[in-house]
Design goal:
Shape of chain A: flat
Shape of chain B: globular
Distance between the termini of chain B: 13 Å
Largest interface: A-B, 51 and 69 residues
Oligomer: heterodimer
CATH superfamily of one domain in chain B: Amidase signature (AS) domain
Order of helices and strands of chain A: HHHEE
Structural class of chain B: alpha/beta
Number of helices of chain A: 3
Number of strands of chain A: 2
Distance between the termini of chain A: 50 Å
Strand content of chain A: under 5%
Structural class of chain A: mainly alpha
Strand order of the largest sheet of chain A: 1-2
Helix content of chain B: 25-40%
Largest sheet of chain A: 2 strands, antiparallel
CATH topology of one domain in chain B: Amidase signature (AS) enzymes
Radius of gyration of chain A: 23 Å
Strand order of the largest sheet of chain B: 1-3-2-4-6-5-10-11-9-7-8
Radius of gyration of chain B: 21 Å
Number of strands of chain B: 11
Chain lengths: ~100, ~500
């Protein structure tokens, strides 16, 4: 059984920057616990000495690099066209420093 | 025109028996008339489609190069960018996001003459197996409107089944192409990991995500793969291999092919699904294939491994949605912290939040070794088990889904929903090319699918063998009765 409890969920809310409603909290607590209990069956497999899989394909077991060349970047106006709020060619956010 | 394959449609266009404009108008009309019953589309790209058709019609008159997909309408899953069009990922968070660049796969399709006709519904950020978890609206199965189409690429699968277009793209992380293809009675192909560039595909689980395709027959998918299966320098996991010919030497027989079946792994199958699967294996035998037993027992752990790795990767990938640079910023947020917290709370649906949290948990210090590292080690063993299986056989046969399409709302428990992916996740974890082909119907007249899985890089062979199966079984010819008619009738 996993030790996942209300406190774990609250700490996850902070880490994930997601605020749950009290109803969601009850539901999430149950279902995350259920999933974590389910995945404990992995412990039935002996993985002593087995390397973790970092690359799915053998062909990828090397670094893929490219030449460090200057390419095209998005024009500022285009990039900003998706910004929720902007000011003077920059993204606007609420003040973060107190006056 | 709706019964035609993509290849037949292209032929008609190239022989000037019909114009690109006529094809486009026909399918757009059909979408407008019939889509309201299944709600497969998030957006319809009317203007773009007509503009492309006009260019094609001008080019054919001038004898210019038209492309391998000339005149063929294609639906794009709404997690792939088309420059200038909205990419929602079926999330409230991105309902206003206009793509600033083309995904490589989409660019290749358009360059080869495809007419992009609309963008299809999906589970939000591709997280789901029924398209019920779309943040916008659910999609309905054309074979039975009270059932789900499967997911996450449920919109693409349902639209192809209703013959609203001959081809569509999908993305498959743990079965998101194959499972809806099976539930909607169409063909769905997931290539080898890295075969199609992921550049411009909104990331979910980056070590698993792969773009693939839907159609009504294997040959059409081969055509689409000839165009999309290209190396791309903008995706560091893109296979650096030349494009391949999928349509040369398509076999009619499977003489000399050894097919592996993991009988022991399949022993808990539901009776109807088992009988259907066995009948499909018999077709392979009749085609001359030799059937051998293989051991994939380790795959019974695949769901746990997958839901740890995929959620871990998703939690990292979805950190970018913060309401600062793009997407919806909550109107009620007053401080920077509130922008993050409330925008994410309002923007994401419950399943997405849950997966981000689960993924963050299995990566957090103290738990990483027990969950994430353990899962990665088992993934190594699973890839090894597949390698060993392919020493005994050329291709593996499995069912696609443990059941046919279920009723909307029938599965509420998340774990039960995850168990739907038992037979599709193995190929995803091992990066293998695989295809779902219609294999008949259950007693409720809902489609079932048959899965063929090849060794890494053997994409061409998987499509070729699926073609032989399809010719012998003839299940791909069937169209849902509600949609097997001209839309103007």
């Amino acid at each position: 059984m996993s030790n996942f409890d209300k406190q774990s969920l609250e700490s996850l809310e902070k880490l994930c920057r997601i605020k749950l409603t009290s109803q969601e909290e009850v539901e999430f607590l149950d279902s995350i616990k259920e999933i974590l209990d389910y995945v404990e069956q992995m412990n039935e497999i002996d993985t002593e000495g087995v390397a973790p899989c970092n690359y799915v394909l053998k062909e990828m077991q090397m670094n893929t690099t490219r030449e460090d060349k200057v390419g095209k970047t998005l024009p500022r106006e285009e990039f900003l066209s998706n910004a929720p709020e902007q000011i003077g060619g920059m993204i606007r956010i609420p003040p973060v420093m107190k006056q | 025109m709706y019964q035609l394959s993509a290849l037949e449609l292209r032929e008609k266009f190239l022989k000037k028996k019909t114009s690109a404009m006529e094809i486009t108008r026909y399918f757009l009309d059909r979408i407008h008339k019939l889509n309201p019953q299944i709600k497969a589309f998030i957006s319809i790209l009317e203007e773009r489609a007509f503009a492309k058709a006009k260019t094609l019609d001008e080019n054919i008159e001038k004898n210019k190069y038209l492309g391998k997909l000339a005149g063929i309408p294609i639906i794009i899953k709404d997690n792939m960018h088309i420059k200038g069009e909205i990419t929602t990922c079926a999330s409230k968070f991105l309902t206003n996001y206009k793509a600033l660049f083309d995904s490589t796969a989409i660019r290749l399709l358009e360059e080869e003459g495809a007419i992009l006709i609309g963008k299809s519904n999906m589970d939000e950020f591709a997280m789901g197996s029924s398209t019920e978890r779309s943040g916008l609206f659910p999609t309905y199965n054309p074979w039975n409107l009270s059932c789900v189409p499967g997911g996450s690429s449920g919109g693409s699968a349902a639209a192809i089944a209703a013959r609203l277009s001959p081809l569509a793209t999908g993305s498959d992380t743990g079965g998101s192409i194959r499972q809806p293809a099976s539930m909607c009675g169409v063909v769905g192909f997931k290539p080898t990991y890295g075969r199609v560039s992921r550049f411009g595909l909104v990331a979910f689980g980056s070590s698993l995500d792969q773009i693939g395709c839907f159609g009504t027959n294997a040959k059409d998918l081969g055509l689409m793969m000839e165009v999309m299966g290209r190396h791309c320098t903008k995706d560091s996991t893109s296979l650096n291999l030349p494009g391949e010919n999928y349509l040369d030497n398509l076999p009619e027989s499977l003489k000399g092919t050894t097919v592996g079946v993991p009988w022991h792994f399949l022993e808990d199958l539901d009776n109807e699904v088992y009988d259907n699967f066995k009948a499909s294996v018999d077709i392979l035998k009749e085609l001359g294939a030799k059937i051998v037993d293989i051991n994939l027992d380790i795959m019974k752990y695949c769901i746990g491994v997958y839901y740890i790795l995929a959620t871990a990767e998703a939690s990292t990938n979805l950190a970018r949605f913060d309401g600062i640079r793009y997407g919806i910023r909550s109107a009620s947020a007053k401080t920077l912290d509130e922008i993050y917290d409330i925008s994410r709370d309002e923007g994401f649906g419950a399943e997405v939040k849950k997966r981000i949290m689960l993924g963050t948990y299995v990566l957090s210090s103290g738990f990483q070794d027990a969950y994430y590292k353990k899962a990665q080690k088992i993934r190594t063993l699973m890839i090894r088990a597949c390698d060993e299986a392919f020493e005994k056989c050329d291709i593996i046969a499995m069912p696609v889904s443990p059941s046919s399409a279920f009723e909307i709302g029938a599965i509420q428990d998340p774990l039960e929903m995850y168990l739907q992916d038992l037979f599709t996740i193995p190929a995803s974890l091992a990066g293998l090319p695989c295809i779902s082909i219609p294999s008949g119907f259950d007693s409720k007249n809902k489609p079932l699918g048959f899965q063929l899985i090849g060794p890494q890089m053997h994409d061409v062979s998987v499509i070729a063998k699926a073609h032989a199966f399809e010719k012998a079984s003839a299940h791909t010819k069937k169209i849902p009765p509600l949609f097997d008619k001209e839309h103007y009738e």
